Amino acid sequence: MSSVTAANSASLLEVEDLAVEFDTYGGIVQAVRGVSFSVEEGKTLAIVGESGCGKSVTVQSMMGLIPMPPGRITSGSARLKGHEILGRTIVNGKEIRGSEIGMIFQDPMTSLNPTMTIGDQIAEPLQVHRGYSYKKAFNEAIRLLEMSKIPEAAKRARQYPFEFSGGMLQRAMIAMAIACKPSILIADEPTTALDVTIQAQILDLLQDLQKETGMAVILITHDLGVVARMADEVAVMYAGKIVEHGMVDDVFYRSAHPYTLGLKEAMPTNDPSLQHELKPIEGSPPDLFSPPQGCGYCARCPYAMQICNRQQPDDTFLAKDHFSRCWLHHVSSSNKPDQLYFKEEAK
Question: Where, residue-wise, is CATH 3.40.50.300 in the chain?
Fold first, then answer.
C-alpha cells in the first residue's frame, strides 16, 4: 500500500497503485502508471500537470468512463467509503456514477445533450438514481439552477443548451453534477473555456456549494492560480505518475520536485515582489508508448543525474503529508539545488 494511502485509511476515497493502458495502432500507451492518492470528506485535492500527463484518465477510469477496449485497468484499486469501485457501477445497491460521484466535464458545450432542455437534463439523474417523479425532479432542477446563481431559473430550465452562454452552461453542468448530492465532485478543468471574470464566479460557486453540502472535490487543472485558490492538497502528475504530493502551502512554498519548480517558474504573478522572468520548461513529455526506465522527467530536468535515467526514484517524505519522487532527495546525492526544498537532515 502507498504510504500516502496508508496514512489516510479513514479517507472518503482511496486510490492505490492505479495503472491504465490503451491499445492503439501505434502500440500500447501506458497512460497512468501506478497512481495513489486519497481524498477526505469536505476537502479539495487538486491534480496538476500539463496536457497528456494522465489526470483525466485517472478519474475517468474510476467512474467507468474509459472505453474498454481499447482501454483497460491493469492494476490498482479505488475504494469509496471502504468499498471497491473499479470496474463496478453499483456498490451495495447504489449507482456510483452520478449518485456517489458527480463530474463536471471539461467542455460543457459538447457535454450537454443539444436535444434536451437544461431542466430535463438536470432532472434525469434524480429520476434514475433517486426515483423522483418527473414533476418533482424538474422542480428540484429549478432549485439547483437557483443554487448555481442562474437568474430566472424557472425560465432557463425550459431552454436548450444553445440558448446559454459558456458561463451559464458551466453552471448548469455544476447543477447537474450535484443533483444527487454526491460524496465527491470531480471538476475536470472547470474554467478552461471561460474568461477571467466568469472563472472567478465559477470557483466561488464551487467553494460555496462545497461548504453547503460537505462534499469532497477533486479538481483537475493545469492552472496553478486555480489551485492556490481552491485546493487543500495538491498532487503533481507527470508522465502518468504523481511526482510530488502535499498540502497546498508545501507544494507552492516548499516545492521539492524540479517539475513543480518548472511549473511555478512558468507562471506569471501580480505580486511585484515575486515577479520574475518566465521560464518555459524546455523539451516535451516522454513517449508513453515506451516510458523511460528511470524518472520520466529526466530528459527535461536541469538537475538530472546518471541514475535518473536508469532507475525510478522512491518517495521521499519531507513532512507528514509532503513527498517528492526525485533522486535529488537521496541522502547520497551531492546535488542540492537552492531553489528546491530539502529536509534539514538531508542537506
Answer: 3-100+182-346
**DSSP strand pairing (315-319 vs 90-91):** unpaired
Candidate from 85-99, 201-215, 228-242 with smallest mean pLDDT: 85-99
pLDDT per residue as tens digits for the range 210-219: 888 889 999 9
pLDDT tens for each residue of 184-208: 999 888 877 677 777 888 888 888 8
Note the pLDDT of residue 344.
60
Average pLDDT, the chain: 86
| pLDDT the model gives residue 325 | 93
3-state secondary structure the chain: CCHHHHHCCCCCEEEEEEEEEEEECCEEEEEEEEEEEEECCCCEEEEECCCCCCHHHHHHHHCCCCCCCCEEEEEEEEEECCEECCCCCEECCEECECCCEEEECCCHHHHCCCCCCHHHHHHHHHHHHHCCCHHHHHHHHHHHHHHCCCCCHHHHCCCCHHHCCHHHHHHHHHHHHCCCCCCEEEEECCCCCCCHHHHHHHHHHHHHHHHHHCCEEEEEECCHHHHHHHCCEEEEEECCEEEEEEEHHHHHHCCCCHHHHHHHHCCCCCCHHHCCCCCCCCCCCCCCCCCCCCCCCHHHCCCCCHHHHHCCCCEEEEECCEEEECHHHCCCCCCCCCCCCCCHHHC
User: The domain 3-100+182-346 is classified under which CATH number: 3.40.50.300, 3.40.190.10, 3.40.47.10, 3.20.20.150?
Assistant: 3.40.50.300
The predicted-structure confidence for 255-271, as pLDDT tens digits, reads as follows 999 999 988 888 777 66
